[in-house]
Amino acid sequence: MMRHTLIQRPRRSRQRGVAAIEATIALPILFLMFYAVGEFGRLLYQYNQLNSLARNAARHMISFTSPNSTGALGISETIESQVRNMAVTGQLSGGTPLLRGLTADAVTINLIEGDPTDPALVDVATLSITYDWTPMFGESIPGFFGDAVDLSWDITATVTMRPL
Description:
Protein name: TadE family protein
Number of strands: 7
Shape: elongated
Largest sheet: 3 strands, antiparallel
Keywords: Membrane, Transmembrane, Transmembrane helix
Transmembrane segments: 20-38
Order of helices and strands: HEEHEEEEE
Domain TadE-like: 17-59
Helix content: 25-40%
Strand content: 15-25%
Radius of gyration: 29 Å
Number of helices: 2
Strand order of the largest sheet: 3-4-7
């Protein structure tokens, strides 16, 4: 005759609350990772938007860049204003900035003349936009024993094209 024995299970009282403790440890780490991935994606999106604005503004700028009376490259003040507006808002006439905090002062325009005696040195127009990127939730983390840790930094988009 075979005897059936019951396998004893560990008592549930020793396991009670373990899931809550594991969740308390794991959830903040998971939320921090989700936040970091989201912020990195936001950074890449804004950098892509900045490059697109710089490229479109530079393309508009080189269409109207021409030698002035002395032979140096130049653009009129109206075109420069349009280029700055396009670099900030995406429109010639101005409007709302496409990136929060982006201003026309962040746009730098350089017209560099080439050397007619050296074919390797050609006329180029360079447009740079510098944007102060900040995270969604605050610009800094307060320090425990010293100064706060700054979380913002400058991202720059630079486009160089030959005038038409």
